[in-house]
Design brief:
- The protein is about 30% helix and about 25% strand.
- With about 325 residues, it is α+β, with helices and mostly antiparallel strands.
- The strands form three sheets. The protein has a six-stranded antiparallel sheet with strand order 2-1-11-10-7-8. A five-stranded mixed sheet has the order 4-3-5-6-9, with no helix packed on it.
- A hairpin with a 6-residue loop joins strand 1 (about 30-40) and strand 2.
- Helix 4 (about 190-200) packs across helix 5 (about 200-215).
Length: about 325
């Protein structure tokens, strides 16, 4: 299936100015929900309460979950909750939509959803998750802060100003709480040649699509920033190098598989990535960034289209 089209991105859930504190051991029961991670309603979350058991998704305003996008059918899909062996399941079925329903890029007529699954309805991508009260509070605060933040119009990521003004405070508090974080530095291979040969308008379309592909592979509460030019930063709160390598690998593979010929028949896009994580109290954001930058440099030197990890890491990359 085709990658999501570009468009207006009024906000992004891949950014936050929320101060994360240590969470209590008891986080309360989790409930299911879906979050728009690509589309004009980017960042909007829909909670699936257990009062109703069925939720119709579609472009018709009478739908339980209204998706405002021309590529979504009037009544596109149905989410429904079921109990099985004492566990609660959430399933999705296609209601005969024009563009079909895809879960993790596989077309389905019906499927049981797992945490982190990506649901494609036309050009809209939704992420399914189980969220407890702290996750929901974090997400709501996140969405409010995002509305106030400067967003790069090409990628939908936050701008470098957020990296400079907000992220150092955030990472400091995560580390003081003992939660830490991981950082992925992404660089498009040969991007200057794309701009030189095809023009900046084509280059912007490439950047926009890489941004959409990256958003499809990360968690709702992760942070994405356009650091400058074709250099992107993804920050994963409460994550280590192994988690970040998995995310970076999915981003790399998603870029490899995408249909770049839709932008121009002669374009091939690949990305190199460097991964690092907070390790000790002496590590501030600058230290972690430098380690990721060195890992990115090694990925470039080793042939590009690779993920590399900070020196002295025990995490294996492939």
């Amino acid at each position: 299936m085709s990658a999501p089209k570009g468009g207006e991105r009024p906000s992004t859930t891949l950014a936050t100015a929320v101060r994360l504190k240590a969470m209590p051991e008891s986080r309360g029961p989790a409930t299911p929900g879906i979050t728009v991670i690509n589309g004009s309603q980017l960042g909007v979350r829909f909670d699936l309460d257990d009062v109703r058991r069925n939720f119709v998704l579609g472009r018709e305003t009478a739908c339980d979950i209204f998706i405002d996008d021309d590529t979504v059918s009037r009544r596109h899909a149905k989410l429904y909750l079921q109990s099985q062996d004492g566990a609660q399941l959430v399933k999705i079925s296609d209601l005969g939509s024009t563009n079909g329903v895809f879960v993790n890029e596989q077309q389905i007529t019906e499927a049981t959803l797992q945490p982190g699954d990506k649901i494609h309805l036309g050009d809209v991508i939704l992420r399914f998750e189980w969220l407890d009260q702290y996750d929901r509070k974090f997400h709501d605060s996140l969405a409010e802060k995002v509305r106030q933040a400067a967003v790069d119009p090409t990628t939908g990521f936050l701008t470098k100003r957020f990296y400079q003004d907000e992220l150092p405070l955030l990472t400091k508090e995560w580390c003081e709480a003992g939660e830490g974080y991981a950082l992925i530095l992404i660089d498009l291979d040969g991007f200057k040649a794309v701009n030189d040969r095809f023009g900046h308008a084509v280059g912007d379309r490439v950047l926009a699509r890489v941004g959409a592909l990256a958003r499809a592979q990360v968690r709702t509460n992760d942070i994405a920033i356009r650091f400058g030019g074709d250099e992107l930063v993804v920050v994963l709160p409460r994550a280590g190098e192994e988690d970040a390598v998995q995310v970076a690998t999915r981003i790399r593979d998603g870029v490899r598989r995408d249909h770049w010929e839709e932008i121009h028949p002669a374009i091939v896009v690949r990305v190199s990535q460097g991964v690092a994580a907070w390790r000790t109290a002496a590590d501030d954001l600058e230290v972690v960034f430098r380690r990721a930058d060195r890992a990115l440099y090694r990925a470039k030197q080793a042939g590009r289209d690779r993920v590399d990890v900070a020196e002295d890491s025990r995490v294996l990359v492939r």
